[in-house]
Specification:
Chain B: Keywords: Membrane, Transmembrane, Transmembrane helix. The complex is a heterotrimer of chains A (386), B (36) and C (532). Chain A has 386 residues and is of the alpha+beta class. Chain A is 40% helix and 15% strand. Chain C is globular and about 65 Å long. Classes of the chains: A alpha+beta (386), B mainly alpha (36), C mainly alpha (532). Chains in contact: A-C, B-C. The interface between A and C is large, with 116 and 110 residues.
Amino acid sequence: MKKLRGVLGTGAMLMAGAASAQVKDMPGGPRVNQLNLPPGVTEISYDIMWLHWMMLIICTVIFIGVFGVMFYSIVMHRKSRGAKASKFHEHVGVEVAWTVIPFLIVIAMALPATRTVVAMKDTSSADVTIKATGYQWKWGYEYLDGPAKDVKFLSTLSTPRTQIMGAEPRSDTYLMEVDNELVVPVDKKVRIIVTSADVIHAWMVPDFGVKQDAIPGFLRDTWFRAQKTGTYRGQCAELCGKDHAFMPIVVRVVTQEEFDAWAAEQKQALASAADDPTKEWTKEDLMARGEAVYTANCVACHQANGKGMPPTFPPLEGDEKYVLAPKQGQIDTVLNGHPGTAMAAFRDRLNDVEIAAVITYTRNAWANAGKGADPVVQPADVTAQR
Amino acid sequence: MTPEQRRRNRIAGIILAIIVIAIFAWTFVRGSALMN
Amino acid sequence: MSSVTADHVPASHGHDDHHEMPRGWRRWLFATNHKDIGTMYLIFSFLMLLEGGTLALLLRTELFEPGLQFFQPELFNQFTTMHGLIMIFGAIMPAFVGFANWMIPLQIGASDMAFARMNNFSFWLLPVGAILFTASFFVPGGATASGWTMYAPLSLQMGPGMDFAIFAVHILGASSIMGAINIIVTILNMRAPGMTLMKMPLFCWTWLITAYLLIAVMPVLAAAVTMLLTDRHFGTAFFNAAAGGDPVLYQHVFWFFGHPEVYIMILPAFGIVSAIVPAFARKPLFGYASMVYATAAIAILSFLVWAHHMFATGMPVTGQLYFMYATMLISIPTGVKIFNWVATMWRGSLTFETPMLFAIGFIFVFTLGGFTGLIVAVAPIDIAVHDTYYVVAHFHYVLVAGSLFALFGGAYYWLPKWTGRMYDERLGKWHFWSTMISFNVTFFPMHFLGLAGMPRRYVDYAAQFTDFHQIATIGAFWFGLSQILFMYVVLKAYAGRGEPAAAKPWEGAEGLEWTVPSPAPFHTFVTPPVVK
């Protein structure tokens, strides 16, 4: 078996040399042909790596012991060697020993593990608290305290579709890059409150030693204290539907000064981008805005051409039930979703301007132009139905 | 199989079937109780 | 196939008054003979192995390179889900029931199972379930893509394919429950005089204990998927948080079934290995009583550890610690069994025919899977590797290198009894080595992928993971092709091409099954033998 592993390892290295000459280690993510857990940048991740080495070494020693005996037996106790079978079939002393000794070994393994379990669960006295919400298929972050309080944004995969389809060469951060990274200060205890808006997701960052399921209707938490600045990458770790592989997590750890500056910037940007839902918008402005919202939120299921993927994802083009019908039905659909289907509720993710814009866009795009009732929906209409 | 054998088998089978149904029902009852 | 000609046990008390031997399709549709039913179970499970294996090859093809080449993500998730459901409920579990049907009556000196007609029904439910699974691909929306674990609320979003899967699980579960009742009553009530429980072959013990596990947990699974069904269609809110339910409740109920389920899939394998190793070591099984107690201990402990599948859900500290300790404890009785097998080999007189190769291969590779199981039992490590390829590697080591290797070993071991012919030993050995090596090529790299953070159930991955995925895909195809060899060996023996087999073709074999002719006559032990 060890020889086999050696052969495999050499083979893997040869192939690594040949096939992936272009791919380099991902900064903050997996190294090419990485063999082991990352030591990471937190005490917890380091503890986990240490525990794993301990377990691996103990198991290897037991492995060598047991299979040494078995291998010896296979060689020396062969009938073809003239071995004659003994008749013994029990020995109380030996049996007690090989029950008690493993029991003691297991206790020895459990002791350091206990320390780490307790440490991982202690989310008290955090310096920064951030709420992470899993959506199908992206993450939303909201800072609940500190200099960035009330900053909130969505964090979506930024790898272009062309790279996924193989039409363009893949970058070193392929599938683990986002438009808006989560920014946190170094050497501070960051508490992440994790939940979901739809199905179960999981927030995982290997370099922090963190993984926490995101469960709809419930708040769970986890924490980390990053000891080094840098960018660290993780992925969703609970099957959540078709784009489960396409909703990564990227955390940028910066100095406290950089964090404060970033926080101030974010708050500024939020204030100026604040949409005014009481004013009357022109159809052209709504369409332009709506197209952008559609591309960022609806394309995955309803497709860029509005034809959807029936029956699971219905077409919007030519849809008589909601899009080409009086506006209340479609406003209700976008605000509240259709429970029991894949259509999520967007009331907490999009503001009234964005919802009005995207609805107006769908009512006038593709072959829908000129058909159906209420071609323009104003933000005020959406507010009224909240 | 003797009739006596068959009788004993049938009794054992019925007892086990009752256990199965009880566990099925228990799961619903316990599951509902754990909610809210 | 058991011989249909005049091999009835000498009719010293007018046995010919029973029914005429049915012929043609009636023999199989109305079968009540444990050998015929066992054969049907084994054929069915092999076909399911091929179907489940094809799904695996499809998904491994997509995973050969990063990016999306062949399948949309949703279809890929359907393949992953159905691969798991079909392998577990269609291949592994029915295969072990097939072995139980064939061998338990022979090993305890009974003429047949306790409930021969229910046995027929148990079998014929299986193709119905299999058709539902297969047909689910062709309904609108395709098969369910929720993972074999069918977690809510994702499973509540799925289309009609999910309902097909739920009904299939109900039907296959009912079949398993009936089979388990049959096995318990047979073993408890129909042993030959003198065959005390502590004289039974270990295969019967492991099946007795497995059958109790089955009747305890299959109803729980039935309830869990029924709750999914009512949440989906009948307005209940067991798992819908917005309506007052709890998604994690599903996980508790499911894994309360799910953990004993994996022991259901391995205990009979332990029984098979415990038959083969003493036979080819020509030495009695070391520590028979300990083996029985260890099996019972594993079974009882298996009820107490389910939440180790839920370490990332946000359990309180006490929960994490308790489930970690309880899970680590299971390694003790499991270790005892492994030591006992090695001690059986020690100072034996060993030969290495194909059954023994698979049994030794099992011990070797299952132990590796056991080690990784112990490693993931350590909760902090599990937080790092939960839902990654490390777990995929772990469970394929114990389920494939474990259960499947034991099934192959048992098939080669008892094939002479079933067919009356010695299978082709040279080809059998080729099958073993090809399977053993390709298995490791496929699944060993997955440990690295998982440690490096590659999540499971992913259609696409970061380019840094490519090499190990390519090795795994190549290994998978090699592994799949190797099973064609097995099919050839078995068909060749059934076709009658091979040396005629003696009643006891293996020098060191023990047990009542070796006292009847090979192939075993249609009726055996019509009069129970007396066991000293």
